[in-house]
Structures are given as C-alpha cells and as structure tokens.
C-alpha cells in the first residue's frame, strides 16, 4: 500500500531551490489512517517527493494550500 505523505517545513529554517538536492531530515507525519509516524527523507529515496514550504503556522495560507495539495494528491502520482 502506498502512502502519500506531505512533509511541510518552514522556508526560513531550510532554504532549498527547485531541483536542488534536499538535506536529510525527519518529520512527524499523519498517515492515511490518522496515525502518526516519524518519516525521514531517505525513506523516499528513488521516489518523487513534494516538499511544501509555508510562511508560518496558523496563517490563512496553511490550511487552504495544504488541503488543496491533499485533494489533488492523485494528480502527483
């Protein structure tokens, strides 16, 4: 079973340009069954990964963009 995990990081904490190799990191993720798991970028080696950057927590852009990415997850497959 495939899991699509959307890992979000603050752009201020990590500056990555498009197509640039991202450094190894880990993050807490919510899985499709609503459980939590700590995932590492290396868990997705040789796979496409979408890194979503957002300005701050609890801003209007956060829920709207994250929900939109979630609703269109199949478009990324």
Automatic annotation (TrEMBL):
The keyword Lipid biosynthesis does not apply. GO terms for cellular component: cytosol. Residues 20-77 form the Alkyl hydroperoxide reductase subunit C/ Thiol specific antioxidant domain. Pfam families: AhpC-TSA (PF00578). GO terms for molecular function: thioredoxin peroxidase activity. Residues 1-15 form the signal peptide. The keyword Iron does not apply. GO terms for biological process: cell redox homeostasis; cellular response to stress; hydrogen peroxide catabolic process; response to oxidative stress. Transmembrane segments: none annotated. Coiled coil: none annotated. Keywords: Antioxidant, Oxidoreductase, Peroxidase, Redox-active center, Signal. Thiol-specific peroxidase that catalyzes the reduction of hydrogen peroxide and organic hydroperoxides to water and alcohols, respectively. Plays a role in cell protection against oxidative stress by detoxifying peroxides. May be an antioxidant enzyme particularly in the developing shoot and photosynthesizing leaf. This is Alkyl hydroperoxide reductase subunit C/ Thiol specific antioxidant domain-containing protein.
């Amino acid at each position: 079973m495939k899991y699509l995990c959307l890992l979000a990081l603050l752009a201020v904490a990590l500056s990555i340009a498009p197509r640039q190799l991202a450094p190894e990191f880990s993050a807490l993720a919510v899985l499709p069954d609503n459980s939590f798991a700590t995932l590492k970028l290396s868990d997705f080696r040789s796979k496409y990964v979408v890194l979503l950057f957002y300005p701050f927590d609890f801003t209007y852009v956060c829920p709207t963009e994250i929900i939109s990415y979630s609703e269109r997850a199949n478009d990324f497959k």
